[in-house]
Amino acid sequence: MQKARLEAFSDGVIAVIITIMVLEMKVPHGDDPSALLPLVPVFVSYVLSYVYVGIYWNNHHHMLHATRTINGPILWANLHLLFWLSLVPFVTGWMGENHFAEIPVALYGFVLLMSALSYYLLSRLLIKHEGTDSMLGAAVGGDVKGRISVVLYVAAILLCFVNRWIAIALYYFVAFLWFIPDRRIERMRER
Amino acid sequence: MQKARLEAFSDGVIAVIITIMVLEMKVPHGDDPSALLPLVPVFVSYVLSYVYVGIYWNNHHHMLHATRTINGPILWANLHLLFWLSLVPFVTGWMGENHFAEIPVALYGFVLLMSALSYYLLSRLLIKHEGTDSMLGAAVGGDVKGRISVVLYVAAILLCFVNRWIAIALYYFVAFLWFIPDRRIERMRER
Amino acid sequence: MQKARLEAFSDGVIAVIITIMVLEMKVPHGDDPSALLPLVPVFVSYVLSYVYVGIYWNNHHHMLHATRTINGPILWANLHLLFWLSLVPFVTGWMGENHFAEIPVALYGFVLLMSALSYYLLSRLLIKHEGTDSMLGAAVGGDVKGRISVVLYVAAILLCFVNRWIAIALYYFVAFLWFIPDRRIERMRER
Amino acid sequence: MQKARLEAFSDGVIAVIITIMVLEMKVPHGDDPSALLPLVPVFVSYVLSYVYVGIYWNNHHHMLHATRTINGPILWANLHLLFWLSLVPFVTGWMGENHFAEIPVALYGFVLLMSALSYYLLSRLLIKHEGTDSMLGAAVGGDVKGRISVVLYVAAILLCFVNRWIAIALYYFVAFLWFIPDRRIERMRER
Hints:
4 copies of one chain form a homotetramer. By secondary structure, chain A is mainly alpha-helical. Chain A has 9 helices and no strands. Chain A has helices spanning 4-20, 40-65, 72-86, 88-97, 102-130, 135-140, 144-159, 164-179, 183-190. In chain A, α1 runs parallel beside α3, α2 packs antiparallel against α4 and α3 packs antiparallel against α5 (102-130).
């Protein structure tokens, strides 16, 4: 089974997710700068989520690039990942509108955690399908960065109830970790 | 006539359908967990519809993959299928917002029924175009699963007025039946 | 210059147009059938517009398929067509919400007229680029159906102020005329 | 690394941006022409933004066409450009709804300025990757038009507080400058 349509469909869904998020920034009625003030937390949330969805698109791009064929379970694992990503606009809007209150910040972290776990599941199925001695298997390997992210998300959700800014700092830190796309796969391909 | 653009357009429409459905989950104003409570039925409807649209995308993917060329009537049969799928976000939102009341649940089943019938029509036109002795014809065959689904949707719409939870259980059961993508086509291709 | 990305971008825009139109059908609050009554004209408008956008996609598909290369002015003529099509959701919503009042019906016809003229302009630029003795030039020829449509749209806009149902009947009639995709190009290709 | 998926994803995001902008034109409740009057500035903003997003798509198309391969930083520079473009619907809506008041007009210019700078950054990364003696490097060269645009955007933002119509005239003028797609690249390719 070929991967072209899986890539095209994922591109479509991620393109819509990343774009409709901006619809949560409702156009304010006044025309002075103070009318924009209530939108600042919404904007900050939007930037964070934009970077996260961008990271997923980049890594998805790299991982599928190193893949040759797919199968039925991989189709569903991919839809499962897209499901959690599709909830990002909702939690982004909720977190932004409530000025980073604890519960919305924790729920945001939960959606990031589930996205990370579903990405991990997809990567395992792809490696199982390609073989651990394949280019993909060698490149992804133990996926240390993925495991660290999961630990940090869980920490952020728990620490959120101590101080929510710790959670937000951790979300930004994980985004920073992933900002550089997966050099492992890039490096493998060059060899 | 080549199928590439038909696939690309269908991917685009299905990607938008599956993503704008989440917009029916309006961001609540409060920041405590109880603010999310009224959204629970909307979320449950969203999950069901996400799985259904995912199933259609998967099966569409498989069916078109086994197809070599298309013609004018097939283009329209495909648009007809996409029309019924485009109504899924509306009936999902109505069913969720009214906490699975009878009429919305029945209408939801009606849209699923029409989607199933239009998918069946598309598959017949494709088989007629490819030939019943083609890979596609041999793989889809009598389409027992498709026929069972239609019977179960009709049963669900009728039983909804006895007890709406029977209808919802049937919708989940049909989704479960289809969860595994069409192995028939996959199996044929491997030979 | 290659046409692949022009096709992909047009597919994307048309896929979003055809799908966001359904967002004009706001989910009603009540759960009884009477809650759906005010949506009937919105739904009827949606069906008409869905068929129109589907026709444009089909014909665009056929026309570009018969094209080999494109140039700068063709890119802009295509964006110009997509501009008028992007207004279809707005006029559909206005016509539906006002139960087919005269002015919205006339404006709907105006957007259809401008879409038809911009499609005509695009086809002329394509034929000029490909050559009148090309497959595309021979297939499209004098474009009798396109000219008849323009005359009927103008008639509908004027007759709308006599009786708006005449206009709506004409819109349905033109849609019916175009329902069958452009057999001319299909026929040419078979030779 | 191949550019196909970068193009497909950018097409998807730009297609959604250009189409959801029209959602800012809310369907009015009345059915007489005067109901459309408050929408006139929203429509004028929409046309301007449609042309701008169309220009970016056209130039992006040309620039990527002249590119052979990409790398990680280019993926992020492209996402950075799409980020600023994703804010266009918001500033378009704000400017339109406030009938071209000073602050919204200035913010609109700021988003155009950031889009231009991020496009410039993307073009520099592409040229660095392809080599200055590549087709792309020779074609884009010193990018005089890009530099003039940046100067004019800054001028528009400042002059906006003298007279906002100067700013709007400058926005239209820059759009006019770019209306013709980048002939430099087209011309180079023909050689």
